[in-house]
Amino acid sequence: MLETETAHTAAPALPPELQSPRAKLVYLYLTTNGSASVSDMCDSLGMKKMSLYSILKTLRKQDLIARDGDAYTLT
Questions:
Q1: What is the pTM of this model?
Q2: Number of folded domains in the chain?
Q3: 19 pLDDT higher than 80
Q4: Keywords on this record (predicted)?
């Protein structure tokens, strides 16, 4: 019987101040994609723009993300 190796990638560490599941989702999305616009996140995450704006505002206040024009990136 042959042994197969399974590649395990470690999940990115989430900042402890992230409590909301939706905030964690947005943070992980930006971790994976590098940067994204609100429209990109709406399409990919299936979230409403108003919800995203609220989450992004909170993440910016916590200095976890930055806004560069229309795109958001991790700090």
A1: 0.82
A2: 1
A3: yes
A4: DNA-binding
